[in-house]
Structures are given as C-alpha cells and as structure tokens.
C-alpha cells in the first residue's frame, strides 16, 4: 500500500478536538491536509472504515500509515 507523504486530518468545523489538534499542528508549522467530513461523503466513509464503523473525530492519518483517533495534545506531539 502506498501512503500519502502528507498528514491528513479528517474532521469537522464544529469539532473542538479537531480545532485543538489543528492548533498543535499549526504551532509546530506541520503541513497537513484538512478534510471536512461534513462536506465529503467519501471522507466520512474513510473515517468510518478506520474506526470500526464509527464517526470519530479527529481521525489523523500519517504518511507511514499510522492513525491517531481523538489524540491528546501530548499523543499528537509525540507522533510528530
């Protein structure tokens, strides 16, 4: 499987945990792709497939294929 070279953050504008994770990435000047699942049905399906059918946000996919779901700031920072 070939992975993207960029971090992908699946979330929604109303999601406070998503905003928090974006702040962590932005504060460290980490490039990422933001995908709002409310405006993208295939992205919602991707999130569900990564989370046993559940809509859990944020779901963050890393270039190495690792996935963090609703990470704390320290969990996200340690992965960076």
TrEMBL record:
Q: Name one GO molecular function term.
A: electron transfer activity
Which residue range or ranges hold the Glutaredoxin domain?
A: 7-64
InterPro entries for the chain: Glutaredoxin, Grx-like_ET, Thioredoxin-like_sf
Q: Which Pfam families does the record associate with it? A: Glutaredoxin
Biological process (GO) annotations held by this record are: cell redox homeostasis
Annotated PANTHER family: GLUTAREDOXIN, GLUTAREDOXIN-LIKE PROTEIN NRDH
Protein name as catalogued: Glutaredoxin domain-containing protein
Q: Which organism is it from?
A: marine metagenome
